[in-house]
């Protein structure tokens, strides 16, 4: 089990940060990701695998006024 934005989700072998982002909302191109409290740069999203028990926080950045 993993936790994404305070919600438990099933974990599976090979799951990456990019997989999680695509499942959350593939139309949101700009986000900030923290894995277990540490920022993960965009350049690492595709290769960074998620382990069972990890906590992920995804914040989508949107323009507004």
Figure out the total of helices: 1
Main β-sheet: number of strands, strand sense, barrel status? 5 strands, mixed
**How much helical structure, as a percent, in the residues?**
10-25%
Structural class: alpha+beta
Report the strand count.
Answer: 5
Gross geometry: globular
Q: What is the terminal separation in angstroms?
A: 38 Å
* Rg of Cα set: 11 Å
* Residue fraction in strands: 25-35%
Secondary-structure element order, as H and E?
Answer: EEHEEE
Can you walk through the features of this model?
Helices cover 12% and strands 29% of the residues. With 65 residues, the protein is an alpha+beta fold. The chain has one helix at residues 17-24; strands at 2-4, 7-9, 31-35, 38-39, 55-60. The longest helix is centred in the N-terminal third of the chain and has 8 residues, at 17-24. The chain has 1 helix and 5 strands; from the N terminus they run E-E-H-E-E-E. The protein has a 5-stranded mixed beta sheet with strand order 2-1-5-3-4, with helices on one face.
What's the topology here?
Blueprint: E1 2-4, E2 7-9, H1 17-24, E3 31-35, E4 38-39, E5 55-60
Parallel strand pairs: 1-5
Antiparallel strand pairs: 1-2, 3-4, 3-5
């Amino acid at each position: 089990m993993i936790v994404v934005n305070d919600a438990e989700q099933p974990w599976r072998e090979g799951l990456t940060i990019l997989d999680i982002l695509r499942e959350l909302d593939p139309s949101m191109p700009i986000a900030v990701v923290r894995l277990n409290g540490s920022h993960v740069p965009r350049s690492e999203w595709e290769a960074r695998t998620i382990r069972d028990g990890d906590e992920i926080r995804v914040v989508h950045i949107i323009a507004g006024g």
